[in-house]
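Entry 14. Structure prediction run on the chain below.
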Amino acid sequence: MAAASVLVLCGAGPISWKVYNVNTKAPDNQVFLYEMGTMKKLPSGPISVWTETLSVDAMLKHPLSPEAVAQVKASVRAGYRPPFTKISPAAGADDGLGVAEMEAIANAGGTTPGTQSLWEVDCAGDVQRILSASEFSGPGKVEHYDAVGDWTHFAPGSMGDSLSRLVCP
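Output returned:
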C-alpha cells in the first residue's frame, strides 16, 4: 500500500502536477505547475498541456500529513527527482525534497489554484500560446477565457522558457 501511495505522489497517479517554476516575487509567492497526464502532441506538431498556479501561502494552509511527508521523503531517497530540479540547480539543493513536497500538496488537491490554463507549445518554433484559461478570484468566483492567444516567444529564464524546457523533447 505504501508503495502505491509513493507512486501517486510522484507522478504515476491519475493527476500528476509537476512544478515548472517558483516565483517568490509574485503576489503570494506563486508556484507554477504543469499536469503531465494532459500533455499531448497535437497532429499539427505542438504539444498541449494544462498548467496552474498555486499560492505558497495557500499551500502552507494545506500541509501534508506526517504519513504523506514520509512517503515523499521515501520517494526522494529511492531516486525520484522532480523535473524542475533538472533545469533549476538551486531547486535540487535538498535533492528536490521541497519541490517534491509542493508537487504532493498540489496532487492532493484542497488548494484552490489562482489560474488554470491550457497552453500550446511549439517546441520547434520556440513559441507558445494560450488556448483556454480560468481564473479563480475567490470562493465560487471563476472567470473563463476561451479565446486562442497569439503565438509568443518566451524569454530565457521566463516561466514559458521553464515550461518549454520540461515539456519539449
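Residues 2-167 form one domain.
Filed with the rest of this week's runs.
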